[in-house]
Structures are given as structure tokens and as C-alpha cells.
Design a protein that fits this description.
By secondary structure, the chain is mostly helical. The protein has three domains: 126 residues, no CATH class; 375 residues, no CATH class; 126 residues, no CATH class. The strands form two sheets. Strands 5-2-1-6-8-7 form a six-stranded mixed beta sheet, with helices on both faces. The protein has a two-stranded antiparallel sheet with strand order 3-4. A hairpin with a 6-residue loop joins strand 7 and strand 8. The longest helix has 28 residues. The chain is globular, with a radius of gyration of 29 Å. The protein starts with a helix and ends with a strand. The model has no long low-confidence stretch (mean pLDDT 88).
Length: 707
């Protein structure tokens, strides 16, 4: 049996097999459910009934589709009745499930069953209303033809403007897209830029931003991201940090300059997400632009100086570059795709996600082979050059960060030298997915039900979807999203959180909003009403996500961030001042004084490093360096200490020296005791009388001993 015949079994036999399996499984489930009800806990000891729901709902949905197809060929009137019934039942389930996403405490015991049933009914509804969904593509195709016509007639309609270089490009684009449409796009982009620009440099760098500030400062001082100690290079985010340095020569070494590149990358993601959506459907593209303009997720990282936003931008950009290079067979884009990959691997470890973008092309070709009459040999021959480029991409992946290879200083870490220091934890190469991304998005972003319905429907309808160019792009981005999420969930080493999930937001928004538009298309016939209701739905989604964009850009020192799902630092409890205490210290500390710092480097502000660095998380000892005296040292060069007893010893052993203890409140008042423990908090309470400075937010302090 060949691959193609294996993938295309007899339809009637398959329908019978699925229906019989569903009936038998349903019978087993009912019996076990009754036993579990009569004798609670007995059945659960042997089997989790929730696991049976997955195959039960899937086979039930498949049986329903087969039944509807059979009914359509024998009794069309009955088929239409069944189709309407399923559509309205799905609508009710969708409303219940969506409401539950925003209020998960409602019917929590039935959440899994409700979600699965709603997804299954949604897929069936999509399948039975394929004609209405196909109309979305036809409308988009007609609009595209209209755009080409308007573009060609522009020189004749506007001969004078056509002579003006630069201006003609803008006006021609606006005329081609439609005056109102293009005006809305420009207005939204200006609004998005303005939102992200507002008070961009008002607050101090905080948490990991201080690392960015230090690295950028060191590049300006030495030309390389060399730690202040000279002991090590900071090899993460090399491409990002050099890019940021350029803006410090434009705006000075300020918070604004450090954050401005993030703003550009964030707006780049907004624009690219819009273009991805527009390539599928013009109206969907506009809705994506509206959503991303006010996306509090995107805004948060567009105003935070860290490399995750750059990698997310390059990921979205690579989608277009790979499509033009490999699907459209344009050599310059193939070369450009490798350049982008090279930059991505020098931005952050997630840069390897480029391989999922490139791999999606080859997966698409494999699927196309199973659906066509074309011989495998011809497809391989056609892709000879593409395989060579794939080989180059794998070489880049293997060599990874060349800066780390060429410039790293060979150092011995503590765990390699001292048996009592635990080694870094080992992780399995592959683990069972826990679907952290979907849990996160469902509770904080667009409900995942829309995404699941669309992806499953697209998978079921692959044969037809691979015909047109527009559907080709849709399948391509769906494959990218699918394999990226699967790979991330299977391979990631417990690295989760909003800053990691940022890379997925653009595609997640496009696919989810396209699904929402498709759902509304099934129930609403009039185009104007459809667009209006779709717009209202997008606005409601934006309003449902907290904090909203205004709360995001008006945040101030001391404001509570503990309920902000998208916060850049997971353990942060409030927005802390990381600046004024160091400016005070810089004015008053003298040569010979001892400086102990509680978390976070102030090098960006005062170009100094502390003598001692206090952190009670022993993981830091694992990666610490060892000096000739057996002290643990951070890469910056400070001696690392771990307990309040260490503080007391330093104070007692240096009676003739003034000792400054700088406490970053944001690193102490946190949501979990990752960095400090109770013994240090007791130490602070005992020495309240030693406080000589308190930051405006009331949390950061400076204590002075032996004065």
C-alpha cells in the first residue's frame, strides 16, 4: 500500500468504522460514568474518565459529519434542518464557553466537557457551512482584482500626482486599497505608535532592563558586551544590544533611547500581523490591525528594553520572507531568509523558531504530494536548491551563537568545582506537552476555542484548501503555528511566561480573529451588518483584556502589577523605582566604603558595581565564578552572598568602614520568595533605624552602617 492510498482510505468504510467506534465508546463511557456515580472514586482509581472524553467527542463529531454528508445526498431538506440545528446548538455552546473563559469559576467541573463539545460542534458547523466560508475567499479574490485594476488605472486618473516621486507611491497605495480603508490603516498605525511612545522614558529601567542598560553601556565603553569585571561577555541578545546602541547615539544614554527600539519592533509586529491577516482577507486584516494596535500584550513589550520583542518581530518577518523565497521561488528572498535566521540566533535562544517557518514549506510540499498526482521525484528535483538552503539553515542552527563561541572566556563555574553546589537541573529532551500557551492565552487573551475550531476544520478540509494561492498562505501560517506550538511544548525546559509566549501573539491573533469572522459569516448574511458585528466583537475582546492599554501606559512607581498576566517580570508585585536610590548613593559614597546591593545592577546609572551582591536563591551560586579566595563572584565581579548572617559578618568585620546596603524594593516585595527569604526581611526590620534614604515610591531604601 502506497503513502497516498494509505492517506485516502475508502470513505464509506471509514464512516462505518468511526460510527461503530463512537457507539461502542459511548456505551463504555455511560457504564463507567454510572459506576463512578454509584461508587465515587472506584472508577477513577483505574481510569480518568476525562481522558475518554477526547476520543468520544472527536469520533462523535466525525460521525456527525459522515451522517450529514450521507443525508445531503439522500434528503436535502432534512440535511438543511440538521445543519441549522447544529449551528444554533454550537452558538449556544460557544456563548457558554466564551463566558467561561472570562469567568472560569462558573461550571468549573464541566469546563473540559463544555470546551470539547463546543469545539467539536464548531468544526462540524464550519464543515457543513463550507459554502459560506468559501465566500470569504471569493470576496477577497474579487477585492484583489479590484485593487489591481485601480493600481493600473492610477497613472491615467492622476497624471500630475504620478509625476511626483515618493508622493505618488503613497497616493497610489491609498487609491488601490480604497481611500477609507487606507486612511483607517494610517490612523491606526499613528495611534499605535503614539500609545507606545507616551511616557516611554519617564520611568526607570527595572528588573532585566537593567541588564540591557549595562550591556549597552559597556558596548559604548569597550566596543564589546564585556562585563564590568572583565571576567565574562554577556552573549545573549548580541544583535539586539548592538542595534540598541545605535539609538543611544541619537537620543543619548537614556531610558528613552534604550526602549525606543522595542517600540519600533512592537509596531513592526503590529504591521506584519495586519499584512498576514490582509493576505487572507482584507477585512480580517483590518480587524487584526485594530486588535494589535490596542493589544496590551504587545504594548507591554514595546515599552520594555529586552530582546524578546525583536525576536518576535523577526519571526513574523521571516514568515513573509520564506513565503516569497520558497513558495514564490525568488532567490533574493531565500538568501535574505538565511540572513534573518543568522540575526535571530544572535538575538535570543528562541531564534531557532525560524526552522519551524522554513520547515513549514517542506511540510506543505509533503502534504501537496499526498494530495496530487505529481511524482515524488519531480517534487524533489524541483526543490534541489531549497534543500541546499535548508542545509545552510541547519548549519546556522548547529553553530548557533557565533559570538558565544568566538568571544567567550573559558571559566570554571562553581558547580564544576565544588561538590556541595548543585549542578544545573537536567531536563528530558522531549516531554509530554502541558499546553501552557493555551492555558495562558485562554485566561488572558482571546479564548482558545476559536483557534482550535479553525485549525481542526482546516485540517479536515486540506484537499480543497490547497487549490488557491490565498488558501496556500493560510495553510502555510497554520502549519507554522501548529508545529511551533507542538515543538515549544515538547522541547521547552520549563521556560514559560508572557515574554516567551510573545512570539506567538501575532499568528494567534490572526487565526483567532479569522475564525471569529468566519463564525459570524455563517449566521449573518448582510455584509454591512457582518462588518459591524465583527467590529463590535473585536472591540469587546480588546475591552475584556486587562490591564487595558491606558492603564498600561499610565503606570507609575508603586502601582500594583500582581494581576497583570503580561507583566515582563513574573515575580514582580508592583512597578518599582530602580534609579533614585543609586543617584543618592553615587553622590554620597566615598572611596574605601563598602557597598552591598540587593539585586539588580545599577551600572547604567552610575557606572559602578557593588562590592557584594546579595541573593538568597542558591541557583545563582551554581553559575557563579570562583576567585582565588574561594569567593563566589557574579559575572559583573561582585562577591555573591546568600544570607543575613553574611551581612552581619561583613558589618562586624569592618568596624572602621562605612557600609552601604542598597535595597531595591522591587526585588524584595515580590510575589514569590525567589530572591529573598524571611531571615533577610527580619534583618531589615531590626535595622530600621539605619535607613538614611527612601525612594519616592516608598519601597527602595538605603541603609548605612558604621557611620
Amino acid at each position: 500500500m502506497g503513502l497516498k492510498s494509505f492517506l485516502h482510505p475508502d470513505k464509506d468504510a471509514l464512516a462505518k468504522l468511526v460510527s461503530n467506534f463512537f457507539r461502542n465508546l459511548l456505551g463504555v463511557y455511560i457504564v463507567l460514568f454510572i459506576f463512578d456515580y454509584v461508587s465515587p472514586g472506584y472508577v477513577e482509581f483505574y481510569i480518568d474518565l476525562d481522558w475518554l472524553l477526547y476520543p468520544l467527542v472527536v469520533t462523535g463529531a466525525a460521525s456527525l459529519i459522515f451522517y450529514a454528508q450521507k443525508l445531503k445526498s439522500s434528503n436535502n431538506v432534512r440535511f438543511e434542518e440538521i445543519k441549522r440545528l447544529i449551528s444554533y446548538v454550537f452558538l449556544v455552546m460557544l456563548l457558554i464557553t466564551t463566558a467561561q473563559s472570562f469567568a472560569p469559576e462558573l461550571m468549573i467541573d464541566w469546563m473540559t466537557l463544555l470546551m470539547l463539545t463546543a469545539i467539536a460542534l464548531g468544526v462540524v458547523t464550519f464543515y457543513l457551512n463550507k459554502d459560506k466560508l468559501d465566500a470569504i475567499e471569493e470576496e477577497a479574490r474579487q477585492e484583489e482584482l479590484g485593487e489591481k485594476k485601480r493600481e493600473m488605472e492610477f497613472p491615467d486618473k492622476f497624471p500630475q500626482i504620478n509625476r511626483l516621486w515618493g508622493v505618488r507611491w503613497i497616493v497610489r497605495w491609498m487609491y488601490k486599497e480604497g481611500w477609507w480603508y487606507s486612511a483607517l490603516v494610517i490612523i491606526l498605525l499613528v495611534i499605535g505608535f503614539s500609545i507606545r511612545l507616551y511616557r516611554l522614558g519617564d520611568l526607570s529601567l527595572w528588573w532585566d532592563e537593567t541588564i540591557t542598560g549595562e550591556v549597552v553601556t559597556r558596548i559604548r565603553e569597550t566596543g564589546l558586551p564585556l562585563e564590568p569585571s572583565g571576567l565574562e561577555y554577556y552573549w545573549r541578545g548580541i544583535a539586539y544590544h548592538y542595534f540598541v546602541v545605535l539609538f543611544t547615539y541619537l537620543f543619548g544614554l537614556t531610558e528613552f533611547a534604550i526602549r525606543f527600539p522595542s517600540l519600533l519592533f512592537g509596531m513592526g509586529i503590529v504591521l506584519l500581523s495586519f499584512l498576514v491577516g490582509k493576505k487572507i482577507n482584507k477585512i480580517v486584516g483590518l480587524f487584526v490591525l485594530i486588535f494589535m494596535t490596542f493589544s496590551t500584550f504587545n504594548i507591554e513589550y514595546s515599552r520594555f528594553a529586552r530582546f524578546y520583542i525583536m525576536n518576535a518581530f523577526l519571526f513574523m518577518l521571516s514568515i513573509f520572507i520564506v513565503y516569497e523565497g520558497f513558495f514564490k521561488d525568488k532567490m533574493k528572498y531565500k538568501i535574505l531568509s538565511l540572513i534573518i535566521f543568522l540575526i535571530m540566533v544572535h538575538t535570543v535562544q528562541l531564534g531557532s523558531f525560524f526552522l519551524f517557518v522554513l520547515g513549514s514549506y517542506f511540510i506543505y510540499e509533503l502534504i501537496r504530494f499526498t494530495k496530487s498526482e505529481e511524482e515524488l521525484k519531480k517534487i524533489v528535483t524541483k526543490n534541489k536548491i531549497n534543500f541546499i538552503f535548508c542545509g545552510f539553515a541547519l548549519i546556522i542552527f548547529i553553530f548557533d551563537n557565533l559570538f558565544q563561541t568566538l568571544f567567550s572566556i573559558s571559566l570554571i563555574r562553581a558547580y564544576e568545582e565544588i561538590e556541595t553546589v548543585p549542578a544545573p537541573p537536567s531536563y528530558p529532551i522531549v516531554k509530554i506537552p502541558e499546553w501552557d500557551l493555551f492555558y495562558f492565552m485562554n485566561g488572558s487573551h482571546i479564548p482558545v476555542i476559536f483557534l482550535f475550531i479553525f485549525l481542526i476544520y482546516l485540517l479536515l478540509n486540506l484537499s480543497k484548501n490547497m487549490v488557491s494561492d490565498r488558501k496556500q498562505f493560510l495553510i502555510y501560517i497554520s502549519i507554522i503555528f501548529f508545529i511551533s506550538v507542538i515543538s515549544f511544548e515538547s522541547l521547552n525546559r520549563e521556560v514559560v511566561g508572557a515574554r516567551i509566549y510573545l512570539i506567538f501573539e501575532g499568528l494567534y491573533a490572526v487565526l483567532s480573529l479569522y475564525s471569529i469572522f468566519s463564525v459570524l459569516k455563517i449566521y449573518i448574511k448582510q455584509q454591512k451588518v457582518l462588518k459591524f458585528v465583527s467590529l463590535i466583537s473585536v472591540v469587546l475582546l480588546i475591552m475584556s483584556i486587562t490591564p487595558n492599554f491606558y492603564e498600561r501606559i499610565t503606570i507609575d512607581y508603586g502601582d500594583d502589577v500582581s494581576h497583570d498576566s503580561f507583566r515582563t517580570t513574573y515575580v514582580a508585585a508592583y512597578r518599582a523605582d530602580y534609579k533614585t536610590q543609586y543617584l543618592y548613593l553615587d553622590e554620597h559614597i566615598q572611596i574605601g566604603d563598602i557597598w552591598i546591593n540587593i539585586m539588580n545592577s545599577p551600572y547604567f546609572y552610575i557606572n559602578k558595581i557593588p562590592d557584594y551582591f546579595f541573593n538568597q536563591n542558591y541557583r545563582w551560586n551554581t553559575y557563579a565564578l570562583l576567585d582565588e579566595n574561594g569567593n563566589f563572584r557574579t559575572d559583573e565581579g561582585s562577591i555573591l552572598i546568600n544570607s543575613a548572617n553574611n551581612l552581619e559578618d561583613i558589618i562586624a568585620n569592618n568596624p572602621s568602614k562605612r557600609i552601604w546596603l542598597v535595597v531595591n524594593g522591587g526585588s524584595v516585595n515580590i510575589l514569590s520568595t525567589t530572591h529573598v527569604r524571611s531571615d533577610f526581611l527580619r534583618f531589615l526590620e531590626t535595622n530600621e533605624d539605619k535607613v538614611i534614604y527612601e525612594s519616592p515610591d516608598g519601597y527602595s531604601r538605603i541603609l548605612l552602617f558604621n557611620n
